RNA sequence: GUCCCCAUCGUCUAGUCAGGUCCAGGACACCGGCCUUUCACGCCGGCAACACCGGUUCGAAUCCGGUUGGGGACGCCA
């Protein structure tokens, strides 16, 4: 294979959404796999809709996901002269022509055709204007667009799509499409090809929504005398109603930023995204970066669209359940150091961070997040569900208080006693704590579970959590004793 | 209306190119059980799909044709 050079060309008209991220990811994987280069090109030719905010958001999103590029970001507008020059070249060589038909006139025809349920194609008179006629109209100050002159011939324009196989379209079916607006600005179809030629793109990996563009773009490549790259059209991601996912109809749930803000591990999102339309033959679903790069191939991309399984207002899953499950998997299995910084920055944001965690108490901190992480869904849970481990001001689950505290009136007396016993322990650790708690239960002739579950609730505020003796150790002698002595407050309400 | 793409559990999918080993496998979700002081993890089990109709064939999820369904494109957007 010749040098692999692929590109990700977002138009900066909104944030980076998961569909775009998936396209970028596939390109990135393909580049990595073949020791190729990924080029980031911002397609900002639509001046009305492009924003700096959006450019920043896209770059931030890619960075967060760990999708790195080797060249760029280039900006399409910087190459405007080149686009115009290519259009001129096509004009000079008779491969394109000036069309003086007015926009209004054409729109009218198109609407008419639609109303009559007939096919519409530009078939205007301008294709065959003589040089004199053109000069005359121009002299008269008539505005014009430049149209590509599609060869009038039998047969098809076809290409061997790396995902779909052979895809063909008859010449007949391709109208003389506009490549330059009447204001002199070249259009996407042209710019994109010119840029891809300049950037020596070898493989165009993009969504199937571009499938209809490909035949026309191949015509441009040929007219410009350039080599046609390989194409790979990946399936689209739809919502449960089978509509294309978009910011407008789905809001932030489809924004990469949303996953960052909601405590996803970036690689977990990538892993989820890659599975939306691609798979291996051996049922593997969890991949390290290296594994994925190694086994990724365009040929194993699915042909059919996939559905992003997100139910609005689902109380249990705030996004696709599979995405959450993959995130949980990574959250509880990656080396603790890999989530340490993410947890740190979230605790900092929540005002729960202490610099000791980075110093004297670092070992304690790592051990603690390791202990509690298997029950969590996202990084955000450390500060919410795990708050009691980092701060004395935590909430009590109502159900837990009812079930584990209020049900046992005796705890009001027992816990202060237990607190004293813990405090008096010359050596305090999970074993001595367990001994103390079990011994006391025996004395009281109650089941140890009453003390254990009650302790969990008063110490952590929660109904469920890690093994109690681990919790006792992690929380430490002083905190445990203090919180147990305070049991009366739970009966007050 | 025209053109293009697609069609396996609720969702993501394996199997389709080289038909039999598939009364269809895995994952998520869901339901049961085990483990356990709780919950989670883990483990065991369950529910659940080849869109339809024809054809080819000894044999079809797989090949062919049609139907239906879904998606995309049809801009002086990208």
Task: Tell me about this structure.
The strands form 5 sheets. A 3-stranded parallel β-sheet has the order 1-2-3. The relative contact order is 0.08. It has 3 domains: 1-74 and 188-334, 3-Layer(aba) Sandwich (Rossmann fold), CATH 3.40.50.620; 335-389; 398-491, Arc Repressor Mutant, subunit A (Orthogonal Bundle). Helix 1 (18-33) packs across helix 11 (289-295), helix 3 crosses helix 6 (188-198) and helix 19 packs across helix 20. With 493 residues, the chain is mainly alpha-helical. It is built from 22 helices and 12 strands. It has helices spanning 18-33, 52-65, 80-92, 103-115, 131-139, 188-198, 211-223, 247-250, 256-261, 266-275, 289-295, 321-333, 336-349, 362-372, 381-384, 398-406, 411-424, 430-444, 448-460, 468-475, 477-485, 489-492; strands spanning 5-8, 37-42, 71-75, 96-99, 145-148, 156-161, 165-170, 178-180, 203-207, 230-234, 237-238, 306-307. It binds one RNA strand of 78 nucleotides through helix 4, strand 7, helix 6, helix 7 and strand 12.
Low-confidence spans: none
**CATH domain fold name of the largest domain:** Rossmann fold
CATH homology superfamily name of the largest domain: HUPs
Helix content: 40-55%
Biggest β-sheet: count, sense, barrel? 3 strands, parallel
The class by helix and strand makeup works out as mainly alpha
User: In angstroms, what separates the terminal alpha carbons?
Assistant: 73 Å
Name the CATH class of the largest domain: Alpha Beta
User: How many domains would you count in the coordinates?
Assistant: 3
């Amino acid at each position: 294979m010749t040098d692999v050079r692929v590109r990700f060309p977002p138009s900066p008209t909104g944030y980076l959404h998961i569909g775009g991220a998936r396209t970028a990811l596939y390109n990135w994987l393909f580049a990595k796999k073949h020791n190729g280069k990924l080029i980031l090109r911002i397609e900002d030719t639509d001046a009305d809709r492009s924003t700096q905010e959006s450019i920043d958001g896209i770059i931030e999103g890619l960075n967060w996901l760990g999708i790195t590029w080797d060249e760029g970001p280039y900006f399409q507008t910087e190459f405007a002269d080149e686009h115009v020059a290519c259009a001129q070249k096509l004009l000079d060589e008779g491969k394109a022509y000036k069309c003086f038909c007015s926009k209004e006139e054409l729109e009218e025809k198109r609407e008419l055709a639609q109303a009559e349920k007939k096919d519409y194609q530009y078939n205007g008179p301008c294709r065959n204007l003589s040089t004199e006629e053109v000069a005359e109209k121009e002299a008269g100050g008539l505005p014009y667009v430049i149209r590509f002159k599609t060869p009038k011939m039998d047969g098809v324009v076809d290409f061997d799509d790396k995902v779909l196989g052979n895809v063909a379209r008859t010449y007949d079916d391709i109208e003389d499409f506009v490549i330059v607006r009447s204001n002199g600005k070249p259009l996407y179809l042209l710019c994109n090809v010119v840029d891809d030629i300049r950037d020596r793109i070898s493989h165009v990996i993009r969504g199937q929504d571009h499938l209809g563009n490909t035949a026309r773009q191949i015509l441009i490549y040929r007219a410009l005398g350039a080599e046609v790259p390989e194409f790979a059209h990946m399936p689209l991601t739809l919502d449960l109603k089978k509509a294309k996912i978009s910011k407008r109809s789905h809001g932030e749930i489809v924004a990469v930023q949303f996953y960052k803000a909601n405590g996803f591990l970036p690689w977990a999102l990538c892993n989820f995204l890659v599975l939306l339309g691609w798979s291996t033959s051996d049922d593997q679903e969890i991949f390290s970066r290296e594994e994925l790069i190694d086994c990724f191939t365009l040929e194993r991309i699915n042909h059919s669209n996939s559905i992003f399984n997100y139910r609005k207002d689902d109380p249990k899953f705030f996004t696709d359940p599979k995405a959450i499950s993959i995130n949980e998997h990574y959250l509880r299995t990656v080396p603790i150091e890999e989530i340490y910084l993410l947890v740190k920055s979230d605790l900092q944001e929540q005002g729960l961070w202490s610099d000791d965690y980075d110093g004297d108490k670092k070992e304690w901190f790592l051990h603690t997040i390791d202990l509690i992480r298997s029950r969590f869904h996202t990084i955000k849970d450390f500060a919410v569900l795990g708050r009691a481990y980092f701060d004395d001001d935590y909430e009590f689950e109502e159900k837990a208080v009812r079930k584990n505290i209020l049900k046992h009136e005796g705890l009001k007396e027992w816990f202060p006693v237990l607190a004293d016993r813990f405090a008096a322990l010359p050596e305090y650790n999970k074993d001595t704590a367990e001994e103390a708690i079990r011994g006391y239960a025996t004395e009281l002739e109650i089941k140890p579970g009453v003390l254990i579950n009650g302790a969990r609730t008063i110490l952590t505020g929660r109904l469920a959590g890690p093994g109690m003796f681990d919790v006792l150790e992690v929380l430490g002698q002083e905190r445990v004793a203090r919180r147990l002595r305070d049991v009366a407050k739970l009966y007050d309400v």
